[in-house]
Amino acid sequence: MAINNVASAAAVPPLNTYRVVRRAYFNRLFAPIYFSAVAALFYNHFHNLLRHLSSSSPVAAVVPTLLLILADFIFALIWLTNQSFRYRPLIRREFVENVEKVSPPADFPAMDVFICTADPFKEPPIATANAALSVLAYDYPPEKLSVYVSDDGGSQLTMFAFMEAAKFAAHWLPFCRRNGVLDRHPEMFFGSCRADDPETQKIKVMYESMKTRAERVVEIGKVPQEYITEEFQREAFSKWTPDSTKHDHPTILQVLMQNNDKDTSGAPLPNLIYLAREKKKGVPHQFKAGAQNALLRVSAMITNSPLILMMDSDYISTDPITVRRILCYFLDPAIRPTLAYVQFPQIYMGLNKQDLYGNECKKWMHAGPHGGDGLDGPSCVGTGVFFARRCFYGSPRELSPIDFAEMNPDRVIEKPLTSQPPMDLINKVGGCHFEAQSKCQWGQKIGFRYGSLIEDYLTSFQMHMDGWKTVWCNPERPAFKGETPCTLVSLLVQIKRWGLGFLEVLYSKYCPLFIGIKNLGFLMGGAYSNWALWPLSSVPFTIYAFLPALALLHGVSIFPKVSADPWFLLYPFLFLAAYGYEMFEFCCLGSNPIKWWNAQRMFMIWCTSSFNFAHFEFWLKTILGRTTTSFGLTSKVNDAEHVRCYERGEFEFGAANPTILVPPTMAAVVSLVALVQGAAVEVGVKGRAWEEIGVQLFLCGFGVVNSLPFYKGMVRGDSLRLPTSTTVMASLFVVVLYAATYFVFKS
What we know:
Active site: 152, 456
Protein name: Cellulose synthase-like protein G3
Subcellular location: Endomembrane system
Largest sheet: 8 strands, mixed
GO molecular function: cellulose synthase (UDP-forming) activity
Membrane topology: Multi-pass membrane protein
């Protein structure tokens, strides 16, 4: 197997290597065979359609054929674009030990860390503070590290938590260095470590005190006066006006920690800056992308570091040498000139043994980026990603126009941060009217891009269009870990938001199927197209969930006979080959068949539920200009009972949003009824040959097996019960659907 060693010159030690994954060569043999079977399937479909039309066949024959052609066309398009990821997947390795041989620590590039939060009740400030502490404690020169916290909710509760975190950091950072701590996230460290020695006990008491105070202010909804004991705290909280709200407040910037400060060992501390950008009612704020662009501009006025780490509030760093690891790419002269970012995988804490809800997302969060890495690089997933600041300002060859010289990404700020940064400029660039008054097309040509709820995907797409390359870094020890939803409904709501974001790109002027393939080529354009087509999977999955079952209920056969028609062989081959290859790919990525089964079941639920609602909301917004959803912030607060149910491997449906569960419940009901009808009535009573309806019986049985958690939820008598209203609505809709299709199948 060929291995590429990347080094800047013969005398310089290598910083990274890569190799092509072995299964890529197998897929290049498998793909043409599978494509031939798909082509044969469409030949049979169109042959049947022409036969029906020429013989004046009834609607019952024509309509199902048209629907199957539509479903299989979308399946084929998604499969075809997915081959981009399977063409040349890479595995990389970094030589972190060689970084200091290439560049001494004094010459390391400075780095800004952006952590975004928006609601102290959905995203607990203590969790966000823990995330900040985990990166403040990086094994990196502290004078080159600055952490910015964007509080889009403009909450005093969040800033108080970070004031407490700044005090604790002076003790926590030297403790981590002295003891070689790897998990530098305090909650994780104290949750897995016995505090036997006096020093650890002392630090733990300090952390518990900080945590108690931060949680207390959230519980009572304000910062009590007895907690404000220092003059700088009074000055900081005075920046809120009596009329300040979450949606209407001035720019608030507070330096909580700076390099001039010292920790308990006498070493300098990193910078820690709190920012709440200005918001006013009626002025578009562009959700998370707008907050990130405000951070981009404000940080340019203060530190303007050439590297930027982007993290979500529920994300934590789990490896203190991560920054040195990414320097293996950013210091490599063969890669650096066109390198936009280094993306790390999304890995989640608290997954139950068999990943009940498929939260690992192996196909999209692991197999896809590995495959993209062999092309021009992976798409950005919005967190755990290190950017070169320069990539937000045009192509590698040409710098886009900027508003003023202080915003130049190449500007070097030599002076250390002071407690009085240039507030005149900060108020200007952090103001809610700045982008409208700027001539630099923020969100269109520079910065994080607007136009989709998934700004990370759209931004990276346009960066690749501009000529930038990206890298996927997946070390043996995870660099980051995040929280995962532990209830089905909260997960489906999150997936709906992702689906809506992809649809906003798919049906826009940035559609990767056209502009992507035209500018990036079939492979890279196909990779981005596959992501955008993700929610379109709902169409074929919904057709196959309902059409065979409804046809069976009406006694109509819509597939080739099992034994008499040789075209039947296409169906088991296409089904088994597709599912078999995906399971093989899952296992190659370190998973197992049970996790794969849970993941494919969850994807079917996403398609019949989340993606269908995403389509509905998209067209409601497009046609009527109305929307039922804002950014859709996922709550990071998990109820203890929900967590226990999840750990036991039991579906927790919840009652907060029962409507989103109606479509998969309908599929469960119609599959079960059709299977019983087909097996007991069509074959048992009417004596119909099972070969005529064998494919439909199999598809209904497959739906029943995948719906077992829903049947269990219907009959439970405890808090895990599927909401009765959901079951009733689903049953009524199935009856209506059966009556509506009567005239089609009986015509």
